[in-house]
Amino acid sequence: MIMKDKENKIRKIVLAYSGGLDTSVMVRWLKEQYGCEIVCYCADVGQGEEMDGLEAKALATGASKLYVKDLREEFVREYVWPAVKANAVYEGVYLLGTSLARPVIAKGQIEIARTEGADAVAHGATGKGNDQVRFELTYYALEPDIKVIAPWREWEFKGRSDLTAYAQEHKIPVTATHEKPYSTDRNLMHISYEGGILEDPWAEAPENIFQLTSSPENAKAQAEYVEISFDKGEPVAVNGEQMGPVSLLEALNRMGGEHGIGRVDLVENRFVGMKSRGVYETPGVTILLAAHRALESITLDREVMHLRDSLGVKFAESVYYGFWFAPEFELLREMVDATQRKVTGDVRVKLYRGNVLTVGRRSPYSLYSEKLATFEADSVYNQRDAEGFIKLNALRLRQRNRGNKE
Q: How far apart are CA 18 and CA 29, in angstroms?
């Protein structure tokens, strides 16, 4: 458990740190307000060059140290792959790239807090968004008595212009943000864009914001065939080459990006109650979801598939709302895993100008029977049997109409 002194005074805070404007100001602000040691923590979930120079920046701002945890493998294997197995999509469109990253980041932060004997954890999420809920539900689920500090809900600053002025006044090194008048979040699964110039839901997102994908108009002129292999619902190989989770997702991101695949523009319902416009790039997982569903079409029983589809909606909502470590979600994951025991095989897809087209699927556990499905003459299926089947299913419909007439 996290240590606390007798007076319950906070002695040490672990801050989830990105090195951006908000968390750079937070290091100084927390130190002033709480008069305690600030330990910075950054989770590497695939931000790439965004992590360059973080330690020097954190120390220069007043932190005592910076922890960087490489969580890329854990993120993909333990969070992204379960979402693929569930075919989890929030409100029919959003593939949950940000939502899935938050619990693994918060889990790592609690582990650092335990290592450091810290009294509290802090995050940079605003009081309007979903991330504050996702972070804090994870904190409390894993460390029930932890003190949580959310500066955006406490401090006097009204917006990022106030933060910029504060940073300049206190000589806090931050990068100017005028060139990107919107907010981004990047990890191995996706990049999201929100706020600023994107707040008008009628305005098309400018082409120059996109980083992972070509526009469909400028994508490769030639279609590309890709074969993806699955084992119990999890992708394990691309074009016959076995790959680890990180390498596999990176490969599909690259392929999908070249073909303009994975762009989404939606207005979503935040958990806190408001609607928000978001633009997302998720090329690799877009390909995986299409391939995974194609494999399930030949390996899952009809009723099992329909039940899993209903579970996928609940799965997506639970992830979006921040309940990854809730008891009902643990059960939900077990149920989804049970449906995937025979989702093993290969799927061939064609990538072309923003589209993922399934062109082949095979499995040692396939339930598909050409003898049953054929339109040619067969000796397996007696078509006359359908007459009684239809009449039995029509019985209540016919009776209802007779009752109306009477």
A: 15
